[in-house]
Amino acid sequence: MSSAGQDTAGPDRLWSVDEHLQDVLTTVRPLEPIELQLLDAQGCVLVEDITVPLSLPPFDNSSMDGYAVRVADVAGASEEFPAALEVVGDVAAGAAEPPHVGPGQAARIMTGAPLPPGAETVVPVEWTDGGLGEGPVSSMRARSASPEGATGQVRVHRPAKARAHVRDAGSDVKAGDRALSAGTVLGPPQIALLAAIGRGTVRVRPRPRVVVMSTGSELVQPDEQLGHGQIYDSNSFALTAAARDAGAIAYRVGAVADDADTLRTTVEDQLVRADLMVTTGGVSVGAYDVVKEALAHVGDEDEAGGGVEFRKLAMQPGKPQGFGTVGPDHVPLLALPGNPVSSYVSFELFVRPVIRTLMGLKDVHRPSARATLAADGPLTSPKGRRQFLRGRYSDGEVTPVGGSGSHLIAALAQADALIVVPEDTESLEPGAEVEVVLLG
Hints:
The protein is built from eight helices and 29 strands. It has helices at 17-27, 71-74, 188-196, 235-245, 260-270, 290-295, 340-359, 409-414; strands spanning 14-15, 34-37, 45-46, 50-51, 61-62, 66-69, 83-91, 105-109, 121-124, 153-156, 166-167, 178-180, 201-205, 209-215, 219-220, 231-232, 249-256, 276-280, 307-313, 315-316, 320-326, 331-336, 368-373, 379-380, 386-394, 397-400, 417-421, 427-428, 433-438. A hairpin with a 4-residue loop joins strand 21 (320-326) and strand 22. Helix 4 (235-245) packs parallel to helix 7.
């Protein structure tokens, strides 16, 4: 690891939220593209336009189980006067040589099977007697149980227009069309389309690998017994889940004790699987703020341009922040406060945009909206700081959760939006218009 402080304004400088975010995002670059198998590419971002090499569907095919017929042969057909046609064979999906349908003939056809030569339309099996010589049927008998269904006679009880229940070749996409554009995030429908046009691999930016670790000797893993002065580690779980939600492959590291050497060793050990590192806790001004102690003065002289810088931001919650790069590959590291709400708000403001930037996405921020504030009384904000309150958003109105000064994690669990209080606002009255960042 290396340390090379880049702030020339001194340690007492108070950074704005926007300044800090811009500095962070200016340092981060999208990951290099790689070629991946389709399922491995799920959640990744395309780096190339995908052109369709063949039309879909590649041939005219039936959209129903039924009978392929000529239009003239079923014109005027009814239950009272059905059209009786000779069945000349089956057309199953994947059939190599479908039978020719001539005048007065029909071919039993399955969904997805190619329209046989001579046929002009498809009548669903429910419009026929299924070859049983009785009234309308609801389905075909299995071929293994009734192989004679592919021959004999079928009675059709309703007419059909030309091309009815036929999917035309190229009706989905045509050869030469653009199937997907560069910048598309590959989800299940996009993976299906790539497979349908014959692509087995695709060039994408990989999902970033994010290592999350919390610090603090007081932290205990869930399901373990709490001792005096101890609490359960929730931050590493929250931030790992948040990183995965943002699109990353996230790894959670168990809480690291308040020992600088242990933390340095843990960070160095985790670099092998990290495109981004996130720590929580130990960034303030206390005697046991181990992250600040361990990372602020560690460096390799031959690794210029690296290092972690610790700052104070004009925001609440989340005033103390750390950012820099570590290791020979200059892996970005964001050091967040330890309070659960401060940590999560900091993640949404700074870490999530970094993850989305590493993925190569253009829009890296959560959607926002203007909303009317609903509250029983005024909400105050520290003068000169941008405050972020938790809230519930619905139909253009946002209701604060947990009060203006609450750092309770229970309040965060109820919220689906952050209420942004401008720096120059000392109080907000009910009915005021505010900006909200939508978390859900």
